[in-house]
């Protein structure tokens, strides 16, 4: 049992120290993308939102991009004319799929599991992107401006209420987990 915990802990510790380096390396592509790609690239060459989503889905599946590094890349692509829905497709499908992960799933679970997994991720990403574009289109106002509310100063009562409720939920969940662990350790001879 101790050997199993050591096999989990060593990669976790390595990830802790190497993750910032990899994040910096992957995020360094964002300035290159911003400098090289013209401002209206996506809207000029891929004017249809669904076409943008399909291209982002096709690009994001084989490319390895972690969830942390995909956010600045998606933001840069939105600034270059990509629809928010297509960026969401990239944000969902990119971190969820990559060639190495799919090969591992294929080897362990088989071809059918990979097909089901890819189909689920693809359909979910596309439906989420379509829904986001629809929501963004329905709340847009004149001249492409979006209604924005800025909160300066002290938080309002609803924000504080949500924070207190979340804190209570976290304390309750932690207490339940500790209670279950104590109960299961009492049963073990």
Instruction: Please summarize the sheet with the most strands.
Output: none
- Work out the radius of gyration: 22 Å
Termini separation comes to 16 Å
Q: With helices defined by DSSP (H or I, 4 residues minimum), what is the helix count? A: 9
The proportion of residues forming helix, as a percent range, comes to over 70%
Report low-confidence residues grouped into runs of 5 or more.
4-10, 12-21
Structural class: mainly alpha
Strand content: under 5%
Element pattern in H and E? HHHHHHHHH
Which overall shape is indicated by the principal axes computed on the Cα atoms? extended
β-strand number: 0
Query: pLDDT average, as an integer?
Result: 75
Please describe what this structure looks like.
- With 189 residues, this protein is mostly helical.
- The protein has a domain at 17-137.
- The chain has helices spanning 2-27, 29-36, 41-45, 49-60, 67-79, 84-96, 99-109, 111-139, 157-187.
- Helix 4 packs parallel to helix 6 and helix 7 packs across helix 8.
- Mean pLDDT is 75; it is low at 4-10 and 12-21.
Topology:
Elements: H1 2-27, H2 29-36, H3 41-45, H4 49-60, H5 67-79, H6 84-96, H7 99-109, H8 111-139, H9 157-187
